[in-house]
Design goal:
mainly beta; Maltoporin, Chain A; 23-stranded mixed beta sheet; 5-stranded mixed beta sheet; 5 helices
């Protein structure tokens, strides 16, 4: 395993050359790009006080990434670890926050697990995703618990324009086979999108050979290949009842079957499903309403060979009503009410399996000439541990043409999960307090023509951090601190498009000074894209510094070396409706680990042929 070269560490860059006709996949996109997640209002990306990124459909397709973790690794401030290949357990760290401190939404719906507090990113394939918005930093005052690190919102494809479809098939390394089909469009006042995607791979051994077997960790049979299969079905339909009044419905059903290495279980089947009914109404010239009724399910069944080894199913039901009032030109007020019900069914014994959350929220966003303001206030009332109020205050000032100063402060909390509260066999403690955080950030933004850049300093202080302490179990004990700098920039000249992101951060245990596990102090990405005629030429390099980790078998703290990985991708349009795409990952076959003791893919490739009709 090779360490990240010192020069790359000093620069903190991950270099990516990728040719694409897509718009930028970062906040350096076209300056009229719209972002919704940062304020729950439609606003130009460059007006957002929060450091945000928009990844549009063209950029998603051009990346040829197979799943959401593969795509998000390219973004500034995001680290993703994975215990093996595609489909295996992943954790996301945004600005050094824990994986259960970043909220993931699907068309506004929470899809996280009530037992772990995290979202199964590894089960989210990209075929049905139209757009992704990333908001970095504490936005708990907008979205409630678990938004300390930020929010990632996924928007699924909607039907639009002339009806048409697409079919595609692909082959790749490790016995990978893929197929997808989609059809959609608009028929008068009705729009529809229907999509089906399938992926099957023989995979490779997740565990590194030198640690097999190890009692209580890996079994002798873990030298085998660990495959993955996923099938995802999406249906989106919308109908305009009248001018300004739209009713829509979403159904998304995903099943993943993943093999992995372990002494107590080595295979799982996981369903990640979502249903939504949405009514959007323009009630007057100044009043818009958005009413959502939705539900999601995360159903995980584990096996040891053919024998059941565990069952954990969580269910979320959600009602959300958001009202937007246009007070005057450039001033907007949002008022929201919501209800969330969570339920757990499992073969483990939970002392409590249900809870409800009610919330009320208000927001104010305004532009006064050179000044921009964002204010948010939210109160969440949990049936099992009471009420908590959070706030956010942000300000932007145009100090010169194309230059803007930005600053914000906010509070946040994270509700303890069912695993932390209600499972005595694994240290559950019903007396836990929620984690609470305060965050600050300030920065400078440049935006002119096709170019933009942002430099931000951020800091978060978290208290009542929930930790597992033997033999007491889960307790409120430690404090965590994160300080860092985040830079992103990009733009276009001619046929070329440039994106870069760089993060310097220090996520640490405030009591011991030790670095938080699996988070590097330096990471970044740089992307260059070019299109010439029917050709798309591509290359990609990603880099990360060393990270503290736990040894796979002894569980002692160790230092996992940094890495730099080069990827190539490209496409050729064979005709008006036919295209060929290809991608090579880990071009130089680097040997590195994201989690100690677990393999990552070596040099591997994938080719896909797509036909549009």
């Amino acid at each position: 395993m090779r360490c990240l070269p010192k020069a790359a560490l000093s620069c903190g860059l991950s270099i990516c050359f990728c040719a694409s006709s897509a718009t930028a996949a970062t906040d350096a996109a076209d300056l009229d790009e719209i972002v919704v997640t940062a304020s729950r209002l439609r606003q130009p990306l460059t007006h957002s006080i929060r450091h945000s990124t928009v990844i549009d459909e063209k950029a998603i397709r051009a990346s040829l990434a197979a799943d959401l973790p593969g795509l998000l690794r390219q973004q500034a401030g995001i680290e993703i670890t994975q215990t093996g290949g595609i489909g295996t357990q992943s954790s996301l760290f945004l600005r050094g926050a824990n994986s259960n401190q970043t909220l993931v939404l699907l068309d506004g719906l929470r899809i996280d697990s009530a037992t772990t507090g995290a979202t199964a990113l590894d089960q989210l394939m990209l075929a049905d995703i139209e757009r992704i918005e990333i908001v970095r930093g504490n936005v708990s005052a907008l979205y409630g618990a678990s938004a300390i690190g930020g929010v990632i919102q996924i928007f699924t494809k909607k039907g639009a324009g002339k009806p048409g479809g697409e079919v595609a098939t692909g082959l790749g390394s490790y016995g990978t086979r893929t197929a997808r089909a989609a059809y959609g469009g608009a028929w008068g006042d009705t729009r529809l999108h229907l999509g089906l995607a399938w992926r099957d791979s023989d995979g490779f051994s997740a565990a590194r050979a030198e640690y097999i077997p190890t009692p209580f960790v890996f079994a002798p049979s873990d030298t085998d290949r660990d495959g993955y299969r996923n099938t995802t079905l999406t249906l989106n339909v919308a109908h305009d009842l009248a001018a300004g009044h739209t009713l829509s419905a979403l159904g998304r059903f995903s099943r993943g079957r993943v093999e992995y290495d372990g002494a107590f279980s080595n295979r799982s089947e996981q369903d990640l499903d979502a249903w939504q009914l949405l009514s959007e109404n323009r009630l007057s010239n100044t009043w818009s309403s958005r009413l959502m009724l939705a539900a999601s399910r995360d159903a995980l069944d584990s096996f040891l060979d053919a024998n059941p080894a565990g069952r954990v199913h969580t269910h979320n039901r959600q009602l959300d009503w958001l009202n937007t009032l246009d007070l005057s030109s450039g001033q907007h007020l949002t008022l929201g009410l919501g209800w969330l019900a969570q339920r757990v069914t499992s073969d483990n014994t939970y002392t409590r399996t249900r809870r409800e959350v009610k919330h009320a929220a208000a927001g104010y966003v305004a532009e006064f000439g050179r000044h921009g303001v964002q204010l948010n206030l939210r109160s969440d009332d949990y049936s099992d541990f009471g009420s908590h109020t959070t706030w956010l205050a942000g300000y932007g000032l145009e100090v010169a043409p194309s230059w803007r100063l930005i600053a914000s402060a906010s509070t946040a909390f994270r509700a303890p999960t069912f695993n932390e509260l209600y499972i005595p066999a694994w240290g559950g403690n019903p007396n836990l307090r929620p984690e609470k955080a305060r965050s600050w950030e300030g920065g400078l933004q440049y935006a002119s023509g096709p170019w933009s850049a942002r430099l931000v300093h951020f800091a978060t202080r978290t208290r009542d951090l929930i930790v597992y302490q033997w033999p007491a179990g889960n307790v409120n004990l430690k404090r965590a601190e994160v300080d860092g700098w985040e830079a992103s920039a990009g733009g276009r000249w001619g046929e070329y498009h440039l994106d870069l992101g760089f993060t310097l951060q220090d996520p640490r245990d405030a009591d011991t000074g030790q670095s938080l596990l699996r988070r590097a102090k330096r990471l970044g990405s740089l992307t260059l894209r070019r299109q010439t005629g029917p050709w798309l030429l591509a290359a990609e390099v990603k880099a990360s510094g060393a990270r503290e980790d736990l040894h796979a078998t002894s569980f002692n703290r160790i230092r996992n070396p940094g890495y730099a990985v080069v990827n190539l991708s490209g496409a050729y349009r064979l005709g008006r409706d036919l295209s060929l795409q290809a991608r090579i990952d880990n071009l130089f076959d680097r040997d590195y680990s994201l989690v100690h003791g677990y393999n990552t893919p070596g040099r591997s490739g994938h080719v896909e042929l797509a036909w549009q009709f």
